[in-house]
Request: fold
Amino acid sequence: MKVHLRKRKQTKKGKISLYLEIYKGTSKTPEGKIKLLRKYEYLDLYLIDKPKTLVEKQANKDNLQLAESIKAKRELEIKNGIYGFTNDFKQNTNFIDYFKDQMEKRKESKGNYGNWDSSLKHLINFAGNQITFKEIDETFCENFIDYLKNKAIKSNGQPLSSSSVSSYFNKFRASLKEAVKKKIITTNPATDVKIPKVKEHRREWLTIDELKAIVKAECRYDVLKRAFIFSCLTGMRWSDINKLKWSDIQKNDNGWQIPFHQKKTENLQYLDISEQAKSYLGKEGNPNDKIFIGLRYSSYMNVELSKWMMRSGITKHITFHCARHTFGVIQLSLGTEIFTLQKLLGHSEIKTTQIYADIVDQKKREAVNKIPDINI
Reply:
């Protein structure tokens, strides 16, 4: 928002009226045209047109200074969000346009951008292309989450999973939170809306014997095989592996290390890797070259991953992310302390790492119960 001091000549009285023009941005009309949003405040201050005496000139100077002071005060009030423009802006701004702007800021992260895009599509299906901030209250938010839970469908015609419902609504809520920060709205109407609990899906991983089996089995794409096994040995995500360059591999007194920003969390990590893991990087190239050239997140590589597992005698549903689970479960099974594993996996919260501990505890219970009844 901007404030301008304007002058308007009043020909009948021979005076010049001073007023403020407050520019509040733009909105789109139903026809798609851009409309400027302005508000005017008349100050009841006037200048004498063509002052002749020193008294008249001084009066003009005093009134002009007073008008400038009021302008400065309004600018400060707008900055602090107390002048009352928030409601006007909310009434005239299309939330869909605002959400799109927030989505474009995530374009560098394909996975996150895709989730924002899916959230936007469901939001438009629910409420249309024109939603003002004024229309978004707690009831709107509750109705939107009800739509995601009970009416929204995926491209294959199936209902959304609980994790998708949670993810899409959180994007919607995050955009409203950002609007509060920017003082477009005063409160976030989605804050107290309850999101359905995400149902935990079964996590698959490979045992040491299964890991040995996939090393021996043939895979059509060597880069896929090397990258998957490297993930099993390091716990690195697909997104982080895919962007690895040779300049990221550093040698120190204790071995090999990779300093990198995790693509998901953006936290700087220093990951020690074993000689065994390094052997799957392949022949060293130029410093700025990608290590896993040709690695793609595509249907044909996903199909080959499944075929590779079948050739290895593995019937589990294995995705690339299962390599990360494999690393976590094997590390805990071999006695790695959970806080150390948290650092290795780059988790910001220990409760995320605890999932792997729960899996290991379950396997221990299953192992104990395998002993047959000796009283029969």
